[in-house]
Amino acid sequence: MTELRTLKVALLGCGNVGAQVARILLDDADMLASRSGARLELVGIAVRNTDTPRDVELPRELFTTDAGALVKDADLVIELMGGIEPARSLILAAMRNGACVVTGNKALVAKDGPTLHEEADKAGVQLSYEAAVAGAIPILRPIRDSLSGDRITRVLGIVNGTTNFILDQMDSTGAQFADALAEAQRLGYAEADPTADVEGHDAASKAAILASLSFHTRFSLDDVYCEGISSVTAADIAAAKDAGFVIKLLAIAEKLTAAGGETGTETDAAGTTGVSVRVHPTLLPREHPLAAVRGAFNAVFIEAENAGELMFYGQGAGGKPTASAVMGDLVSAARSIVLGGPGRAETTTGKVSALPITAAATSYYIGLDVADQPGVLAKIARLFADHGVSIEIMRQTTHRDADSNIESAELRIVTHRASEAALAATVEAAKGLDVINSVTSVLRVEGV
Ligand code: HSE
Prior knowledge:
Blueprint: E1 5-12, H1 16-27, H2 29-36, E2 38-46, E3 63-64, H3 67-72, E4 76-79, H4 87-96, E5 100-103, H5 106-123, E6 127-128, H6 140-146, E7 152-158, H7 161-173, H8 177-186, H9 195-198, H10 201-214, E8 225-226, H11 234-242, E9 245-257, E10 273-285, E11 297-304, E12 308-315, H12 319-339, E13 353-354, E14 361-371, H13 376-386, E15 391-400, E16 407-415, E17 418-419, H14 420-431, E18 436-445
Parallel strand pairs: 1-2, 1-4, 2-3, 4-5, 5-6, 8-10, 10-13, 10-18
Antiparallel strand pairs: 7-9, 7-11, 9-10, 11-12, 14-16, 14-17, 14-18, 15-16
Helix pairs in contact: 1-12, 4-5, 5-10, 7-8
The structure holds L-homoserine (HSE).
């Protein structure tokens, strides 16, 4: 049998995912060699503190605190430290030294992807980050490679397991947000400081990456409109449920006309098409495939011109699942070294612009507390019509206040798809209408 060459692998970071990656490299060395055509030798693991206990028993001599020295002598560098620095400098140094880099660092890729890609192109090395979006789910490679001969028109993703768990708890138990969050923290899904998850920042980084690959244009975190789930109430969930919807935090990237209507097929010379990239709580019909994604699972739903609808589902976090995505990138990078050449790079020929949220086209769900008297519905219908927003569904429930004996009604309206600007203006005007006591909820709707 021919002797395989050995490639040196440096691992930066040894948390949940890093420890599993190290375990797989050590335990499955023969399998990885046969898959990649080279022996992958783990030469060191850079950590902040070599004495920290790890989830997996690993040889002590592999640990070092000198990440800079470790990356200088590696063919393949796996960055799982997270954060912007020193991860960014170490990745750039590794690539300048000719190493291929695998990272799970969504925040870094979303913030500074162009710099990383530029360096990878210059150095002729592979930069890959499948683990950065939706954990174990193979989603970036299918978008980049399998769908490279098609045109993606829209991506809807449940890409944050913590918020999906919280919203699912609220939906299935009627819990308020704070209680569902406490449960997520108790079970280890949510961090002690849950801001990055619940305010949508984690999903926004993933949205920027999904949009970049789907539309062959580099989008950054600054291009993503972001709303989290902390203001979603048990009443919103109950009303949505009653109307046949479920609330999900979606990362959305879709091609639109700037006028906010139809899905475009190609950038036009006048720049009238662009991509809306956004994260916000969204009502989905309960029969939509994404509505079936429960607990902390992730899923990405793609619409493409020729492929039609596709859905990718799986575990979006956790040591072993995320390590699976890292290992796929690592084997692919090793093969690119063995076979020569940098492997498949991303294309950035799309050159579509990111649209502001006001240009997005959505449907809205609007809950209104109104006076129950003649002419109210007519006034409300007129207000929507005056703003060019068409009503798709209107449902009314009435109730009488026991103390005051005043009768009021709750109206639940789902609009047809219209520009975000028109919908926002309608809601603003509704707040000033005399027959409306209050606007109880405003949520965007997809999949209708
Ligand atoms: N915190 C993320 C989630 C996992 O809850 O899905 C890592 O991106």
